């Protein structure tokens, strides 16, 4: 990394410093301070304030603003642990993170390998096309997916499944392989969960593909050729050459996308507001709903603080073990 | 170099990038033909076997099929945007009948929705001299309903861009080139917050709403723009810092030996070499202000809604019956300009996203 270059280039730095209008070496802090200030006042301060709300019995917006709420200590957290909805939400959220992560990794590795293969013509254009989902706003793509998962008999997926049924029946396939259309993708618990996961995977795979492709391109071709000369098959080459090269980046990208999956709000909210009957409320939706629909601001704040704590943990792990902050420390 | 001049230069470099990509795309068929001719030649002269070529063709077709499957939702919604007036979910299949394609939905967005002007009642800007609010004033003429959501969005994004760039670029320089008290700690803090974007904003919504109300900052587009800038700071500062790290310090040294002042080195060395990084930051900061809608919907009153909130409202108009064609046309006009720039800068975006400890 280049920051080590800075470390070794002491004479350059000191000459730079000597030419500066300030004598104090800490003047760089002045350049950083406005950003830190803005970030703290709009991002950190609300988190602390949220924590404060979570310790009160605020039940409507007026009591949060007007100070009509009283401090009740950790009561909200105790109530939370006793709330079965909290545990439903937690389980669903973790399941959502885990299932979508596994699918994401397999899909992304597959795409990256294919679009980096010597035999594929036009792979640079395909790579550009494949990361399209990143370029569109979430509200757009997520609403489109909701439309495709429509419960209607002639919704996109139900139509496709209908065609599939016709095709299979024409082959006189057993009843077991057919789908019971129309499927209520948004009105059944696990159907909705399946729809969430599909959409989440589609939204998140481009980021992983980008990271894996850039790791694959760092593997020298000579390494593959050497393995081929040694008589290694495709599978063996994947295990001994490709896998070690992409293991680190995949782990890193997994932690990051898991953190964003954990905070997923738009998919459940736009699809069916975490339904049916609150069974699929991911943690942020749960907290948001307690505040917006039930005016339980104190409880809502407690839920969201728990959510933020988990995300913070993800990021801490990423920074600590994923090497995300490489180049921060070396001076 | 004034801020305006650098903004113009940045816009020019983005435009040049878009142009070169379009040229490359236009000449792609020619290169494709050459590739096929070459393969045929290789088979004829015995350099490659026919089976070898077939394998390549099959793999390429497989890749193409995969791309088509992955992009299916976007293809579907684009065809839907052309089918105003015909029912979308019907017995005839997934895609609307091509013979019914029309631009009615786009006409609706431009002349009836609140996209450009409220209710599509177009007006034009007019300068007023010697008015009540100053010697030179500006107002909309020819429209009875006033400017629409796109102007709110553009206003928010301008605030976000100016505030964001004003804070991100100097800070990235300081992190990359200077030593100061707390550098390591602040940088660590920023890295911790890099991946926490929209989710965190929604999580703190309750607190945000009561804080903004207490300080009387709700329904204020300027403050909202600042808020989005704040949410974009950690990730983009970190990204730009890694970009600057890759510029050798010796370049600045050489410039100084030649008698350049400190500001000269910034202007002549750092900024030109960071241009691709700046372009990526431009896209990300733009997106931060352009796409968000939940905070905007909570803090703003309807007359100040930006495009993203309007889009959300169209999507949820009826509980089960999104007006798909209008939604699709609105969304395409909303997203396409950004998406085009994004793909033009794709290489830089990839470099930017695979930042940090990726080499390890």
From TrEMBL, chain A:
Positions of transmembrane segments: 27-52, 59-82, 94-116, 128-147, 193-216, 292-319
GO CC annotation, single: plasma membrane
Keywords: Cell membrane, Membrane, Transmembrane, Transmembrane helix, Transport
A single BP term in Gene Ontology: transmembrane transport
Pfam name, any one: BPD_transp_1
Domain ABC transmembrane type-1 per the UniProt entry, residue ranges: 90-318
Major location (coarse): membrane
Locations listed in the record: Cell membrane
Coiled-coil ranges from the UniProt annotation: none
InterPro entries for this protein: MetI-like (IPR000515), MetI-like_sf (IPR035906), UgpAE/MalFG_permease (IPR050809)
Membrane topology summary: Multi-pass membrane protein
Family per record: Belongs to the binding-protein-dependent transport system permease family.
Protein's UniProt name: Binding-protein-dependent transporters inner membrane component
Organism of provenance: Halorubrum saccharovorum DSM 1137
Automatic annotation (TrEMBL), chain B:
Bilayer topology: Multi-pass membrane protein
Residue ranges of domain ABC transmembrane type-1 in the record: 150-345
Database matches in Gene3D superfamilies: MetI-like
A GO biological process held by the record: transmembrane transport
Any Gene Ontology CC annotation: plasma membrane
Transmembrane region(s): 57-78, 154-175, 187-209, 221-240, 277-300, 327-345
UniProt superkingdom: Archaea
Cell compartment(s), UniProt: Cell membrane
UniProt-listed CDD domains: TM_PBP2 (cd06261)
Pfam families the UniProt entry points to: BPD_transp_1
UniProt main location, coarse: membrane
Keyword NAD on entry: no
Keyword annotations: Cell membrane, Membrane, Sugar transport, Transmembrane, Transmembrane helix, Transport
PROSITE patterns per record: ABC_TM1
UniProt cross-references to InterPro entries, sorted A to Z: BP-dep_ABC_trans_perm (IPR050901), MetI-like (IPR000515), MetI-like_sf (IPR035906)
Family recorded in the similarity comment: Belongs to the binding-protein-dependent transport system permease family. MalFG subfamily.
PANTHER family in the record: MALTOSE TRANSPORT SYSTEM PERMEASE-RELATED (PTHR32243), MALTOSE_MALTODEXTRIN TRANSPORT SYSTEM PERMEASE PROTEIN MALG (PTHR32243:SF50)
Listed name of the protein: Binding-protein-dependent transporters inner membrane component
Organism of derivation: Halorubrum saccharovorum DSM 1137
């Amino acid at each position: 990394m280049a920051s080590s270059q800075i470390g070794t280039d002491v004479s350059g730095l000191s000459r730079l410093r000597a030419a500066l209008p300030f004598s104090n070496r800490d003047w760089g802090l002045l350049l950083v301070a406005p950003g830190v200030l803005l970030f703290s006042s709009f991002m950190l301060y609300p988190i602390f304030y949220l924590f404060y709300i979570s310790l009160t019995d605020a039940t409507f917006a007026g009591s949060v603003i007007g100070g009509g709420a009283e401090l009740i200590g950790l009561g909200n957290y105790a109530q939370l642990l006793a709330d079965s909805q909290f545990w439903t939400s937690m389980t669903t959220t973790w399941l959502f993170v885990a299932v979508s992560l596994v699918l994401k990794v397999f899909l992304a590795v597959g795409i990256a390998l294919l679009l980096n293969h010597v035999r594929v013509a036009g792979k640079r254009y395909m790579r550009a096309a494949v990361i399209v989902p990143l370029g569109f706003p979430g509200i757009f793509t997520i609403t489109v997916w909701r439309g495709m998962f429509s419960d209607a008999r002639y919704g996109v997926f139900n139509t496709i499944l209908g065609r599939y049924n016709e095709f299979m029946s024409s082959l006189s396939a057993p009843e077991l392989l057919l789908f019971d259309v129309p499927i209520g993708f948004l009105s059944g618990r696990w159907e909705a969960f399946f729809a969430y996961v599909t959409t989440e995977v589609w939204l998140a795979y481009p980021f992983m593909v980008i990271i894996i492709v850039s790791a694959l391109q760092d593997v020298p071709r000579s390494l593959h050729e050497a393995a081929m000369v040694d008589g290694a098959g495709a599978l063996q080459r994947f295990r001994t050459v490709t896998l070690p090269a992409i293991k680190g980046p995949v782990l890193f990208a997994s932690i990051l996308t898991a953190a964003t999956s954990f905070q997923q709000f738009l998919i459940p909210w736009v699809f069916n507001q975490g339904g049916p009957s609150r069974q699929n409320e991911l943690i942020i939706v749960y907290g948001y709903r307690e505040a917006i629909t039930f005016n339980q601001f104190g409880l809502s704040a407690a839920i969201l603080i728990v959510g933020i704590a988990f995300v913070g943990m993800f990021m801490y792990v990423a920074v600590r073990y994923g090497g995300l902050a490489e180049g921060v420390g070396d001076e | 170099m004034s801020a305006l001049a650098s903004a113009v230069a940045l816009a020019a470099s983005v435009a040049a990038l878009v142009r070169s990509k379009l040229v490359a795309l236009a000449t792609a068929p020619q290169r494709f033909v050459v590739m096929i001719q070459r393969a045929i030649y290789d088979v004829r002269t015995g350099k490659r076997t026919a089976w070898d070529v077939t394998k390549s063709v099959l793999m390429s077709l497989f890749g193409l099929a995969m791309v088509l499957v992955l992009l299916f939702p976007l293809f579907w919604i684009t065809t839907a945007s052309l089918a105003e007036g015909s029912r979308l979910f019907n017995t005839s299949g997934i895609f609307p009948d091509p013979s019914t394609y029309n631009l009615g939905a786009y006409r609706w967005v431009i002349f009836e929705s609140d996209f450009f002007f409220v209710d599509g009642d177009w007006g034009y800007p007019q300068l007023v001299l010697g008015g009540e609010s100053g010697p030179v004033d500006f107002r909309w003429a020819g429209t009875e309903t006033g400017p629409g959501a796109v102007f709110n969005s553009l206003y928010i994004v301008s605030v976000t861009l100016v505030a964001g760039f004003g804070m991100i670029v100097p800070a990235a320089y300081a992190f990359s080139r200077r030593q100061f008290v707390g550098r390591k700690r602040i940088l660590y803090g920023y890295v911790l917050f890099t991946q926490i974007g929209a989710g965190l904003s929604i999580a703190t919504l309750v607190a945000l709403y009561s804080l903004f109300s207490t300080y009387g900052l709700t329904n204020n587009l300027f403050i909202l723009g600042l808020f989005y800038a704040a949410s974009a700071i950690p990730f983009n500062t970190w990204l730009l810092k890694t970009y600057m790290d890759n510029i050798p310090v010796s370049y600045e040294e050489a410039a100084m030996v030649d008698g350049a002042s400190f500001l000269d080195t910034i202007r002549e060395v750092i900024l030109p070499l960071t241009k691709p990084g700046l372009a990526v930051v431009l896209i990300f900061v733009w997106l931060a202000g352009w796409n968000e809608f939940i905070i905007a919907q909570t803090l703003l009153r309807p007359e100040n809604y930006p495009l993203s909130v309007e889009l959300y409202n169209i999507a949820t108009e009826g509980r089960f019956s999104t007006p798909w064609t209008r939604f699709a046309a609105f969304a395409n006009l909303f997203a396409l300009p950004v998406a085009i720039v994004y793909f033009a800068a794709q290489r830089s975006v990839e470099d930017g996203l695979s930042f940090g400890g990726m080499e390890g």
